[in-house]
Amino acid sequence: AKSEGKAGYQFFSQEMNQVNMRRVALENGMRQGVARGEFYLYFQPQWDLKNLRLTGAEALLRWHSAEFGVVGPDEFIPIAESCGFIFDLGELVLREACLHAVEWDLLCPGLRVAVNISGRQFRQHDFLQTVARIVEETGVRASSLELELTESVIMERAEKNIHALQALKWMGVRLSIDDFGTGYSSLNYLKHFPIDAIKIDRSFIADLVTDSDDAAIAEAIISMAHSLKLKVIAEGVESEAQLDFLVDRCCDEAQGFYFAPPMPAEDFTGYVKRFFAT
Ligand code: C2E
Ligand code: CA
Ligand code: CA
Ligand code: CA
């Protein structure tokens, strides 16, 4: 049994080594990848369920690496966070998203672009200045820009964050809480934060129709948000049955494969034109 344990340990450490090697390789690859223009933003349409109107899109980062193939954000964002590359990457995403928001605002005034902000990016001392500078440089209407922060990021250093969020609100930026319901949440904190919307995590939407617990949670989130005068966005909507449930409960907005998958910017331009023949 003893030697078995040792072999197991060796196997384990070998596996750890491989994970670390990929991590280091991706870390170095990312910097080259940006220089080579291998990072792209995809955009997933978001719909207003009451007025059946396109409200905008969420920007989702993609890496098409010549060396590693397609690498997903769930893998490279945490690496970028831990090595500090998230600052450059995050700025690139913000600028790109704002430039597209300007373009689409001309096609369809009021269309928004939502950008995911990672914890380390939000905590950086000059994050507010960076946002202000990019808004100024790109000429985006601040109200066309939405920042998505996760519940856990908002909750840590709550006191400090209220000021930062307030400053963003003064700039005119829209704020939403991403992955709502998955983190540690004291619902009470919501009323202290100057936020506009919460996004129900897609893990609750997935089994909405078959799992009565998930249905109850989604329903509770919607009614609580509404009593706090917050908008609710459902993410990961894949079926008509899910959509029906959400419309019945007066969920404000939704996104998901049922409407459209995330798509390249040019395709989203076509999408906007299709639904906004003026
Ligand atoms: P998220 O913010 O929760 O983004 C939603 C994810 O759900 C996206 O995965 C999207 O492609 C996927 N999705 C959309 N509709 C559906 C659906 O109907 N069903 C299912 N099953 N999934 C759907 P993606 O693009 O792989 O992004 C994963 C995560 O990576 C995002 O989760 C976000 O946390 C992070 N991420 C993506 N882009 C950025 C970025 O530019 N900056 C930062 N900091 N994080 C990003
Ligand atoms: Ca998001
Ligand atoms: Ca989310
Ligand atoms: Ca999520």
TrEMBL record:
EAL domain sequence ranges: 23-276
Ranges annotated as spanning the membrane: none
Domain of life according to the entry: Bacteria
Name of the molecule in the record: EAL domain-containing protein
Entire protein: shown range: 306 to 583 of 594
